[in-house]
Every structure is written in structure tokens, then in C-alpha cells.
């Protein structure tokens, strides 16, 4: 059953899944709290232009995508902070421009075929190289250190930006930091989940955890556990079922959300009945 | 001896997106004062507080705060935010301590003590692990106050602390603020009605249409005008109130 572990590409894919499963919910919990659940989608669009630029210039698509998506993340935060009334239109232009630029540039790149595009948009486990894994590992370490080390500050800003600003906290800096971490997570996840589905791995595990938790800390821990479980099992199942890894992981995550949404109230009601009988 | 000035506004105009809400305001607040900032809806009370805290624009003039930012507390008007992700009362109140706490390190014992004391002060000690979403409206307000108290502020701004608060929470609030005032804190309270906070007030600043129309002690005449303001706001809700006949000037 575990014969896929003998293949190097599967070992790399599973390691990448572990990194994504941990990192995506760690960033996701703050963007969900800020009600910016779709920012990952937008940065995924922007990252595609970076991938295309990398392919076109024969540089590492992963590294170029990282640079471009971080620039996009900073631009989003600057637009959000300075042009509140037209922010949604400016963001839409950035996102559409990102995916349109990616599609056009990839068509001109050597080896820029539809299958190359699909691999980046929806994830392809066989494409994770050893060099990619090194970059992903470094990104994951940075994401974990910053999101855990600055957990209280990021929570304070995500929970009440005005209060944090009034307290003298560096709100704009923390927002740019979080947006940059989101961009890093998008790049880290693009081989495993794909640029169009990465947002799901940032949001769905967090949404599932909130159905049963009562604290921010509890949500943080449970959503990482869920992210890890669905990412690793999704990669393994995608090998067995010969399905795209990104779609498989996301469907698993959504199935778990559905089961929790149905099951949690039933378990809660059963517990209340048990408590009532004991009394 | 004149008390030390903590906040000085000189010919200051405040607003949002370039639009003026408060114009040419000059005001000095001294250490130990308990100020009621009053006036009808739309008079610019909340805008003044937000501008001092950097949440609204200072369009003209100067704002000088004679304190480190970490010593300035703020209780906003709305209920405590509890977004999609749940958080406990304690987690929420800790966010009020961060301006004084070290980054990338665990909270120090004195930070934890300040958080615990703030929660106990507002009477939420038994609920410190309760999710915010399970608190009543009055308890929410108390959680907001605890968050502001966690930084042990020298100057505390509170925007409509009595709005939508039950009688029990109003009494807890009055006791809390009495204690703070006794310890020498400076309080600026944006109020529609003085309620149980009346004995605390050392100075009333009344705004009307973005300008100060009274600055002085609380007198029977001022109280009568406040009653009219409250009645007019109740009748007209957010409709701007015509200039009242009582042109109180300090």
C-alpha cells in the first residue's frame, strides 16, 4: 500500500505536503480573522505571472514567483491602506492582470504548454524538485517562526486593527508582513495544491477548526493538525487514484469540514444529554 | 501648582478623507482630570478622540501628547470584535498589553498580572476563558475596558462607555473608573448622558457642530443642556440637531 514511498518524487511531494499542511493554516488563521479569506486566491493569480517570467527568462519559476507575489502582496496592502474606497477595484485589476500576464507570458516561454500551465494552476506532485524542496523548507521555517513568534501581535491586528493602531502598534508593517507570508505560502504550496486552489488550504482547515474550538490558540493548533492531515493524505490518495493532488487535497478538506459541521452539533447535543442524566 | 498638561490641541481641525468634521479646536487636558466630552450626535466628539489616537485625520493645527503611546488607552464605541475565529476573554485582553510587552518572547509575569488584574477589575475573572461570542452586550463592553486597562494607561479615552450597557455593567464601570481616577489616571469620556459617572466628572467640554461651545465645571445649567441633547438625539436619532438656545460659553 505504501509502495509509493520508494519513489523519490513521492518522497519529495510528501515532504512538500507536510510543509504546506503546517504553513498554510498558520497564515490562514490570521487572514480568515481579518476577513481576507480570498487574498490567497489573488496572490495565486499574481504568482502565475512570476512563474511565467521565470520560465521565459530561464530562471527558477519558484524564486521569481516568490519575488513577484511578495511585490503583489505589498502592493495590495498599500492599496488597502491608502485607497480604501477604490481598493476592491484596484485589487481586482491586480489579480486579473496577474493571471492574464501569466497566461500570455507562458504561451511565449520555451516549453510553455497547456500542461505546464495546468501543473502550476492545479498542482502536480511529480514536479517538485530537490531545489524546490529546499526553497519550500526555508519558506516554511520563516512562516512558522514569524506566525508563532508574533502570534499575539498578528492576532491583535487581525482582531481589531483600529485598536492596534491606537495602541501604537506597527499595524501597517504587520499587515505587510502577513501579506508577504501569504505570498510565501502561495509559492510554497503551488507544486502540491496549485495556484488556484492554495487559498482553500489556508481557509478550509481554519473554518473546520472553528466549528469545534473556543479559543484562538486552540483554533491555531487544530487547523495545523487538519491541514497536515489533509495535505499528506491528499497527496497519497492522489497517487493511488491517479488524480491531481491539489483537487484531491481540497476535496478532502471540504469533506472534513462537512463532516465536522454535521457531526459537531450532534456530539455536543449527546454530551449535553449525558451531563443532564448525570445531574 | 498647575497640573501637568498631558494633551494639547491647538487650532486643530479633524476629519476623514479630507472632509472637515471638527474645525479650529484648542483644548488642553491636564493630568488627573476626568473630562466628559459631550454634545449632540454629529458634533464631532468621537472624531476628536479618533484623531488624537491617529484613527482620523488631523487636517490643520497641532496635537501634542505628553506621554509615550503605550500609556494611552482607548475603549472604542462598538462592541468587542469577535471575528470568525473564536478567542477567549483572556486572549482578547492580552492584545491590550502588547504595546508594553516584549516581542518574540513569552509574556513576563508582570504582563500576565496586568492582564489578570484588568479582567478581575471589570468583574470578568470567572469568564476569562469564555469565548467572546458567549458574552452579553454589557460583558462585551467590560472586556473592551479590560483590554484598555491591561496597558495600565495614564490617559484613557472611552467612547460612549455607557451606550447599550445594562445597569449592573454601568455600576461596575463606575466603580472601575472611580478607582482609576483615585489612582491619578486622566480620563476623557465621550458621553451622551452622565448616568452613574456624574460624581467623577471634574470638567465638561461640550461640542456643537464641530466647535467647543462650553468648557468648564459640571453645573445644573450644563446638565439641563445635556438632557436636551440626549432628548434631541433620541427623537431625531442621527439627524443633525439645530443650534440650541443655551449658548453656554466657558
Main β sheet profile of chain B: 6 strands, mixed
Order of helices and strands of chain A: HHHHHHHHHHHH
Name of the CATH superfamily of chain A: ABC transporter involved in vitamin B12 uptake, BtuC
Number of domains of chain A: 1
Q: What is the 3D form of chain A?
A: globular
Q: How far apart lie the N and C ends of chain A?
A: 49 Å
What do these coordinates show?
The complex is a heterodimer of chains A (279) and B (250). Chain A has helices at residues 8-33, 39-56, 61-82, 87-108, 114-122, 130-149, 151-159, 161-166, 171-189, 198-210, 216-241, 245-278. With 279 residues, chain A is mostly helical. Chain A has a single domain (3-278), classed as ABC transporter involved in vitamin B12 uptake, BtuC. In chain A, helix 2 (39-56) runs antiparallel to helix 10 (198-210) and helix 6 (130-149) packs antiparallel against helix 9 (171-189). The relative contact order of chain A is 0.17. Residues 237-250 of chain B have low confidence and may be disordered. In chain B, strands 5-6-7-3-8-9 form a six-stranded mixed beta sheet, with helices on both faces. The longest helix of chain B has 17 residues, at 220-236. Chain B has six helices and nine strands. Chain B is globular and about 45 Å long. In chain B, a hairpin with a 2-residue loop joins strand 1 and strand 2. In chain B, helix 3 (109-121) runs antiparallel to helix 4 (137-149) and helix 4 (137-149) runs parallel beside helix 5 (167-182). In chain B, 29% of the residues lie in helices and 26% in strands. Chain A binds chain B through residues 29, 32-35, 85, 149-150, 152-153, 155-156, 158-160, 162-169, 206-207, 210, 213-219, and chain B through 17, 53-55, 68-70, 72, 74, 76, 80-81, 83-88, 91-92, 94-96, 98-99, 101, 103-104, 107, 129, 131, 147, 151.
Amino acid at each position: 500500500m505504501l509502495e509509493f514511498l520508494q519513489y523519490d518524487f513521492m518522497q519529495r511531494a510528501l515532504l512538500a505536503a507536510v510543509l504546506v499542511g503546517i504553513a498554510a493554516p498558520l497564515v490562514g488563521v490570521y487572514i480568515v480573522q481579518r476577513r481576507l479569506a480570498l487574498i490567497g486566491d489573488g496572490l495565486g493569480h499574481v504568482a502565475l505571472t512570476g512563474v511565467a517570467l521565470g520560465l521565459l527568462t530561464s530562471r527558477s519559476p519558484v524564486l521569481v514567483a516568490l519575488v513577484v507575489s511578495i511585490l503583489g502582496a505589498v502592493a495590495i496592502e498599500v492599496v488597502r491602506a491608502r485607497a480604501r474606497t477604490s481598493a476592491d477595484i484596484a485589487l481586482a485589476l491586480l489579480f486579473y492582470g496577474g493571471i492574464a500576464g501569466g497566461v500570455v507570458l507562458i504561451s511565449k516561454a520555451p516549453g510553455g504548454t497547456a500542461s505546464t500551465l495546468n501543473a502550476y494552476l492545479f498542482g502536480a506532485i511529480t514536479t517538485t524538485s530537490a531545489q524546490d524542496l529546499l526553497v519550500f523548507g526555508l519558506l516554511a521555517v520563516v512562516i512558522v517562526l514569524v506566525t508563532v513568534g508574533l502570534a499575539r501581535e498578528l492576532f491583535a491586528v487581525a482582531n481589531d486593527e483600529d485598536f492596534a493602531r491606537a495602541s501604537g502598534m506597527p499595524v501597517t508593517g504587520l499587515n505587510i508582513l502577513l501579506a508577504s507570508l501569504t505570498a510565501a505560502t502561495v509559492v510554497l504550496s503551488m507544486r502540491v495544491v496549485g495556484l488556484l486552489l492554495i487559498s482553500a488550504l489556508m481557509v478550509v482547515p481554519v473554518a473546520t477548526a472553528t466549528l469545534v474550538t473556543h479559543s484562538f490558540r486552540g483554533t491555531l493548533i487544530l487547523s495545523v493538525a487538519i491541514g497536515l492531515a489533509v495535505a499528506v493524505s491528499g497527496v497519497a490518495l492522489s497517487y493511488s487514484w491517479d488524480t491531481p493532488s491539489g483537487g484531491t487535497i481540497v476535496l478532502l478538506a471540504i469533506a472534513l469540514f462537512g463532516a465536522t459541521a454535521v457531526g459537531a452539533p450532534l456530539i455536543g447535543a449527546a454530551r449535553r444529554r449525558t451531563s443532564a442524566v448525570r445531574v | 501648582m498647575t497640573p501637568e498638561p498631558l494633551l494639547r490641541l491647538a487650532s486643530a481641525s479633524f476629519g476623514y478623507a479630507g472632509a472637515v468634521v471638527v474645525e479650529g479646536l484648542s483644548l488642553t487636558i491636564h493630568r488627573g482630570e476626568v473630562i466628559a466630552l459631550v454634545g449632540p450626535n454629529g458634533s464631532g466628539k468621537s472624531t476628536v478622540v479618533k484623531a488624537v489616537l491617529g484613527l482620523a485625520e488631523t487636517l490643520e493645527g497641532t496635537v501634542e501628547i505628553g506621554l509615550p503611546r503605550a500609556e494611552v488607552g482607548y475603549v472604542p464605541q462598538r462592541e468587542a470584535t469577535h471575528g470568525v475565529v473564536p478567542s477567549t476573554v483572556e486572549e482578547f485582553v492580552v492584545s491590550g498589553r502588547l504595546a508594553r510587552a516584549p516581542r518574540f518572547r513569552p509574556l513576563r509575569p508582570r504582563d500576565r498580572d496586568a492582564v489578570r488584574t484588568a479582567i478581575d477589575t471589570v468583574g470578568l475573572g470567572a469568564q476569562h476563558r469564555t469565548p467572546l461570542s458567549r458574552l452579553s452586550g454589557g460583558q462585551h463592553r467590560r472586556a473592551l475596558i479590560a483590554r484598555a486597562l491591561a496597558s495600565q494607561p495614564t490617559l484613557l479615552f472611552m467612547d460612549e462607555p455607557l451606550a447599550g450597557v445594562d445597569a449592573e455593567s454601568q455600576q461596575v464601570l463606575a466603580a472601575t473608573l472611580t478607582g482609576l481616577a483615585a489612582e491619578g489616571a486622566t480620563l476623557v469620556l465621550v458621553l451622551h448622558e452622565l448616568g452613574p459617572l456624574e460624581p467623577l466628572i471634574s470638567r465638561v467640554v461640550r461640542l456643537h457642530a464641530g466647535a467647543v461651545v462650553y468648557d468648564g465645571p459640571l453645573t445644573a445649567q450644563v446638565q439641563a443642556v445635556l438632557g436636551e441633547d440626549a432628548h434631541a438625539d433620541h427623537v431625531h436619532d442621527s439627524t443633525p440637531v439645530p443650534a440650541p438656545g443655551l449658548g453656554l460659553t466657558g
